[in-house]
Amino acid sequence: MAMYQPPIPRPKRRNAVLRLYDGPLYRDWAFWLTVANVALPIVSLPASEVPSSSPLWVDIPLGIVLFGGTFGVLPAWLRLLFRRWRWRRAQRSQQEVRPDAPGRPTHGTAPLVQPAPRSTAPHRLQDALELPADRAHHGPQVPEFPWHVAPTVPQVMPVAQVTVPPGAAHSSGSSDAFSAARRSLPHPIARAVRIVQQAHTPRDEYEAVIDAGETLAIVISVTAAALLKDHARTGSGSDTALLAEPALARLKQAYVGSGAMFGTWTNWLASLNALVTAHPALIPGFREALESRPDEPSVVDHLNVLRNERNRAAHGDKPHTRQEATLRLATLRPHLEGALHRARFLEDVPWLLTVSSSYQPRTDNFAVVTRRVMGDHPDFEKQTFTWSRPVADEMFYVLGPSGPLSLSPFVASRFCGHCRQLEVCYAYKTGKRQGPATFKSFDSGHDIPADELGDDLRGLPGRD
Ligand SMILES: [Zn+2]
């Protein structure tokens, strides 16, 4: 029998109920304030000693409207106005920081919201791991995007302002960039691109494009982090280690702070520019991806456009109609294509999931069976290597120029109690001094605790 797993708390969804209250309702103070003020006249009027000229059946509804409205609904409405004002101000200051064309990397601007959970879709990592079929059914659907649309929110950033940079679309065209990514990039991003292509409506596609952008930012970042971690470990004191350690320390700061979000990844990638320029061999092809040319934005430039759109949507300015979604997609899709195009170097540093490793006494090395976690098809191709070092089973590795490097603690395969299946997850956050790590599923965005990996994240270079 499977053990009972308590459901994972849903992320708080702002203005999700009647636009005034946050979901889930029981965690919103404004909701309870309204409930209390509606209950007050119901409880107090019948017990009141003060004589009234009107009967109770008039007094009570009047009291409910008066108290509930003034002290419950009105504060919630004022909060909504305040949130909209704060968001507009944040948008303005963000534009002032970047007076030049959109798409420039933004340094130090934290994302304004947490990434939204992705839509749940079938995922068959368990096939690769040959798990019993009863663990393979899919869990309940999660809300696709928790922030509901507020149709009255003024459009602060007109669509026309987001210009499509020349060269973003490339000559390859949509289907080429997408099908290449689905064929040969690491599974999480290949799968995210498949969801883009399978979207039924422009609005679904709009969300899938932004999700794919975030997934790509994470996949590039954790791949780079695994390679840097090896340099920090093996090249202690060397020039490379001196650059790799502060880079990992910056990532650790996000993990022990508010968590690694879309903006964390793009800012972190932009910050690696100096390092990869000095040491291009560190991650082959990565320097070219980060290079901003006049006619061709860097991978970070492309991803930042998608990130800004994520923030915009998260603050209530999602496309309201099919037409608007189509219009915005026309601007966003080339940026996803451009980012995928520039991320092709990932093909040469494939992700592997180890299946088994056995010692070969005659040759004094290890025969390692792996699954190649590349492409959108979940029946990952089996590949056997002979390595001089043993590796752990059921762990993700990136096959770098110098051999296999563990993607832990950045990526892990974890069983999601919500979906009842194994999911590919990335590290999201952990406690500063102690406590488990929280991982997020690439597929569903579910939070999954990983007890032992908290220490590993805190063990990254850098001060506590
Ligand atoms: Zn899940």
SSE diagram, text form:
Blueprint (H helix, E strand, L loop, with lengths): L12 E5 L3 E3 L5 H19 L8 H42 L27 H4 L44 H12 L2 H12 L3 H33 L4 H18 L5 H10 L1 H6 L7 H5 L8 H16 L7 H21 L8 E10 L4 E8 L8 E7 L8 E5 L2 E4 L4 E6 L4 E10 L6 E5 L5 E4 L2 H6 L6
Antiparallel strand pairs: 1-2, 3-4, 3-6, 4-5, 6-7, 8-9, 9-10, 10-11
Helix pairs in contact: 1-2, 4-5, 4-12, 5-6, 6-7, 6-8, 6-11, 6-12, 8-11, 11-12
Zinc ion binds next to loops.
Keywords: Membrane, Transmembrane, Transmembrane helix
What is the radius of gyration computed over CA atoms, rounded to a whole number of angstroms?
25 Å
Strand order of the largest sheet: 5-4-3-6-7
Quantity of strands, as a count: 11
Terminal residue distance = 41 Å
Described by strand count, sense and barrel closure, the largest sheet is:
5 strands, antiparallel
One letter per element, helices H and strands E, the order comes to EEHHHHHHHHHHHHEEEEEEEEEH
Q: What is the total number of structural domains?
A: 3
**What percent strand?**
5-15%
What is the general shape? elongated
Structure annotation, total helices: 13
Structural class of the secondary elements?
alpha+beta
Low-confidence stretches: 1-5, 94-173
